[in-house]
Design goal:
83 residues; single chain; mainly alpha; two-stranded antiparallel ribbon
Length: 83
């Protein structure tokens, strides 16, 4: 995997890693997932964050595509929350 600052996992990782994360996203119960529009907004905010490297948030260690899908999750940067 190449290091890609400010890339989401889909852009930075091998297809099998991205597919595995997306499979986990799909398993999140509908009541616990954000609507698609909010999900895209969250990912866009993550894409401009200095903590994003190769699809991983260096602030919390999560794959951003997974964290952004959860309704109860929030940006882990308490000093400058993006969502």
């Amino acid at each position: 995997m190449r290091e890609c600052k400010r890339c989401l996992l889909r852009q930075a990782a091998e297809d099998d890693t991205w597919a595995s994360v997306m499979e986990k996203v799909e398993k999140i119960p509908a009541r616990d997932r954000v609507p698609d529009g909010i999900y895209r907004e969250r990912l866009e905010a993550c894409s401009s964050c200095d903590y994003l490297i190769s699809g991983v948030c260096m602030k919390c260690g999560c794959y951003v595509e997974f964290r952004a899908a959860h309704r109860r999750m929030k940006c882990p940067d308490a000093a400058a929350r993006r969502w």
